[in-house]
Specification:
This protein is α/β, with parallel strands linked by helices. About 40% of the residues lie in helices and about 15% in strands. This is TatD related DNase. Belongs to the metallo-dependent hydrolases superfamily. TatD-type hydrolase family.
Length: about 260
């Protein structure tokens, strides 16, 4: 009943033991992993996650790698979406936290990818770090078919605006830190039908992996993250798992299940 709505399983951090990571997630009760790409150079690796394990995948150009993205990659993205099954366009968006990223170029790429999402009638998975209001501005302009606001850490007012636009809000490891009071309040108080669970593995490790040295996040951590949210909401964990899985499929469509390498889809 668990769906990890954001997991970079194709990242090089998993190259040495990816089969074991997927098997551990399945053993922990994780039914599906949504794997978004980050650049044109990673599209083939993202597709391999679908071919090898049955993951749900998305294709997009991540704002952190803005210096790598060429205009030609937008046409390449559209070509991949014509040829390959995808549940969303992502990971796309804006990042105004990392210093030195070209804001104007990020915005141009984001708008272009929103237009592509409209063309293919796909939802989007958006990166919103220090950029919630700016992302909302362009979502209002282009009106895509909803999506997921990844690693949500904005205000309740911003949360409500994303929800109005048909978005679910992603919560993961950041919620498990006792000092993350705003995120924990949102996780406790937002309507249950607006929330999805995610790990962002190998990043955003939960509190119990914080170290030192910090541990690698992985999708098998999702049940414990879910238990943390259930405790914050004062509800039974099973009901939370069922609701968040249903929310992910409500916005991304039927997601199927992962399987071990070599098994048929």
């Amino acid at each position: 009943m668990l769906i990890d709505s954001h997991c970079h399983l194709d990242a090089p951090e998993f190259d040495a033991d990816r089969d074991r990571v997927v098997a551990a997630a399945m053993a922990a009760g994780v039914r599906q992993l949504v794997v978004p790409s980050v650049s044109a150079a990673t599209f083939a690796g993202t597709r391999q996650m679908r071919a090898r394990y049955g993951c749900a995948v998305a294709y997009g150009l991540h704002p952190i790698y803005v210096a790598e993205h060429l205009d030609a990659h937008l046409a390449e993205l559209a070509d991949w979406l014509r040829r390959e099954p995808a549940v969303a366009v992502g990971e796309i968006g804006l990042d105004f936290y990392v210093p030195g990223l070209d804001a104007a170029r990020q915005t141009a790429l984001f708008e272009a990818q929103l237009r592509i999402a409209r063309e293919f009638d796909l939802p989007v998975i958006v990166h919103i770090r220090r950029s919630q209001d700016q992302v909302l501005k362009y979502l209002r302009k282009w009106r895509v078919r909803g999506g997921i606001a990844h690693a949500f850490n904005g205000s309740r007012q911003q949360a409500d605006e994303f929800i109005k636009l048909g978005f679910k809000l992603g919560f993961g490891g950041a919620m498990t830190y006792s000092g993350s009071q705003r995120i924990r309040r949102l996780a406790a108080d937002l309507p249950l039908d607006t929330i999805v669970l995610e790990t962002d593995a190998p990043d955003i490790a939960p509190a119990w992996l914080a170290g030192p040295p910090p541990g690698r996040n992985a999708p098998d951590q999702l049940p414990r993250i879910a238990a943390e949210m259930a405790a914050l909401r004062g509800m039974e964990a099973g009901a939370l798992l069922a609701a968040t899985a249903a929310n992910a499929e409500a916005v991304l469509g039927p997601l199927g299940s992962v399987h071990e390498a070599g098994q048929p889809e």
